[in-house]
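FAQ: What does a ligand-bound record look like?

Like this one, built around pyridoxal-5'-phosphate:
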Amino acid sequence: MGKSEKLFRKAQNLIPGGVNSPVRFYEPYPFFAVRADGSKIFDSDGYSYIDYCMGYGALLLGHNYSSIINSVKSQLNKGSLFCVPTEKEVEVAELITKCVPCAEMVRLVNTGSEATMHAIRLARAFTKRQKIIKFEGCYHGAHDYVLVKAGSGVAHQGIPLSEGMLDSIVENTLVIPYNDSTLLERTIESNSIAAVIIEPVIANMGLVLPEKHFLYNVRKITQQHDTPLIFDEVVTGFRLALGGAQEYYDIKPDLATFGKAISNGFPLAAIAGKEEIMQHLTPVGRVYQASTFAGNPISVSAAIATIKTLMKNRMIYTKIDNTCGKIVKGIRDSSSSLGLEINVNSLGSMFQIFFSSNLVRDYTSAKKSDVKLYKKFFDQLLKEGIFVPPSQYETCFISYSHSKIDIMNTVESFDNALQKVRS
Ligand SMILES: Cc1ncc(COP(=O)(O)O)c(C=O)c1O
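The answer part, i.e. the structure of the complex:
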């Protein structure tokens, strides 16, 4: 028995399901990581994998990226937690306001879930309304406000609603299909809506892109009804462009949430948006939000180094987008020569394969993908030394550390895996 298997058996007796986040489990057991560097992750049995999970999108620059690690190391020598304000918090807030179009003010938190929870509370207080609208298959974190018909692990496990949620909260979360602005308009007209929250590009039911004019229509409809629009940019922020999806599509929401790539692998998230809304947060306003670790100097140092690296070198985006394009082309070439019916959705440095002949444009079409084939594909890729997310309802991410050799090996391995899937 290998070390990962042994560790998993032990972990199952100590940690529910042996994992600290459900998306990390897959049959028969996940590999246990010991270290990672650049584009690679190494396991406790001595195998290495080219990583396309990349911290579910967090590691935009790659694992162990030296300028980020050095800034964290230098902060570690000065202390890891102060719980009083620091100059670096002001610096990172200023950097975010420079990069992100909607960011007039910023509040730092630790995780994407915290960011979306507080953004929604803020919108509710600002509008003095209760109901929110979210879109089917969008994932905004593991809290009651948004855990209704969500994507990611919830879609993977086929749980439309988590047990333990309050009915009164669920009743206030209206869910409509993505890419359907007509239904959005009808729903907003017939209800009193505190906020519309959306992943501008969905990365949590595989990758699903907004159709032409959809985001523009969402913005127009929300504006017409004085309803705050929250872009959940926990994945797209600092990844799709320095200013996130709002820069990429030139659409300014009222509030936006960030996490993941903002600090290249350290736990930091943020709520950003219009000053007139943000000023409702305590201690100026009466919307309570607090956290011991918010704005901790370690994560903040990582975020400053990440944002400055990205600001200095916008070519990073060109490189990662090109890498993604080459891999996607490789997959499409393989599947057409093998006569396989698959769909590959891609944008910027993100892509996902769906084993389906239908176009994937919403939750219903994403659910038509053959998840058994995806699992076969995943298992085969692992044997080839490639790690993609274990679930169909996640996205593959490219980092700045993926090299030309990685691309060559990946295209070849994807071809081998697709051949196995066909047989
Ligand atoms: C779009 C989006 N929003 C929010 C979250 C929640 O972030 P966290 O896992 O940091 O709480 C995620 C996590 O994957 C996400 O993809």
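Follow-up question: can I read anything off the structure? Yes, for example: The first strand starts at residue 33 and ends at 37.
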